[in-house]
Write a structure and sequence with these properties.
single chain, 239 residues, alpha/beta, Spore Coat Polysaccharide Biosynthesis Protein SpsA, Chain A, 37% helix, 18% strand
Length: 239
């Protein structure tokens, strides 16, 4: 596969230390397609950076300094870093879903602009999430899928593939957290472009600190919740 067909893996990090090596080892073990790994960090003092010196990878690994703020800025900086035909946003503690990367790349080559790893379809799972976080996620997911007929059963998961075509056509308006994920998927749906799901696993972090803030980001998610309903019931087409 030529370099211009390589998929970028955007990983926002925050003091992951040597924990990042487990993720890189998983890529080494499970990924066959050419990828480029973008480690998106906030500060030069981030403990992830010295750990990268110990990485032994067949893939190119590039540290990318966050040009924005917090998790949202890290991801959008990584997305804008290159001109790869597709970008996968991947979490820094996820050493168990690396086997999905090739499958997601294959779906992209089949013509899908968004590939959604879903915890809420057969074969997917969510382990260790506290009930007060899991309940609103499941309610929102069920409502969008079954009432708004949204073609994704896991709208809030940040782990996702986006085509460069979509990133160019739908500039990100969200400003906080991982709300970019539902935004881009909602815009893809409104454009009438193709979305597909694959089952994925999710486990609560055992090390480090999660940057997922479901209640702090609720307003950002709610905006796109109504946007999706507008697409379905009001036939709105302007993105």
């Amino acid at each position: 596969m030529a370099a211009d067909e390589r998929v970028d893996i955007v990983i926002p990090v925050f003091n992951e230390g040597e924990g990042i090596l487990r993720v890189l080892d998983a890529f080494e073990r499970d990924v066959k397609n050419p990828i480029r790994i973008l480690i998106c960090y906030d500060r030069e003092s981030d403990t992830t950076l010295p750990a990268l010196a110990k990485a032994h990878s067949k893939f190119e690994i590039i540290p990318v300094k966050n040009q924005g703020k917090k998790a949202h800025g890290a991801v959008t900086t990584g997305m804008a870093f290159g001109r790869s035909p597709a970008v996968i946003v991947y979490m820094a503690d996820d050493d168990y879903n690396a086997g999905l990367i090739d499958r997601m790349a294959e779906k992209f080559r089949m013509g899908f602009d968004v590939v959604v790893p879903s915890r809420f379809i057969p074969g997917g799972s969510m382990e260790g999430c506290r009930w007060y976080k899991a309940l609103p996620l499941r309610i929102a997911a069920w409502t969008l899928a079954h009432v708004a007929r949204f073609p994704a059963h896991d709208p809030t998961n940040a782990f996702r593939l986006f085509s460069r075509r979509l990133l160019d056509a739908a500039p990100i308006e969200s400003k906080v957290g991982f709300t970019f994920s539902i935004e881009l998927t909602a815009k893809c749906h409104r454009l009438g472009w193709k979305i597909i799901e694959v089952p994925a696993q999710w486990r609560e972090r055992s090390e480090g600190k999660s940057r997922f803030r479901v209640f702090d980001w609720a307003g950002g998610y709610l905006r796109w919740f109504f946007y999706i309903f507008g697409t379905t019931f009001l036939r709105m087409r302007r993105i």
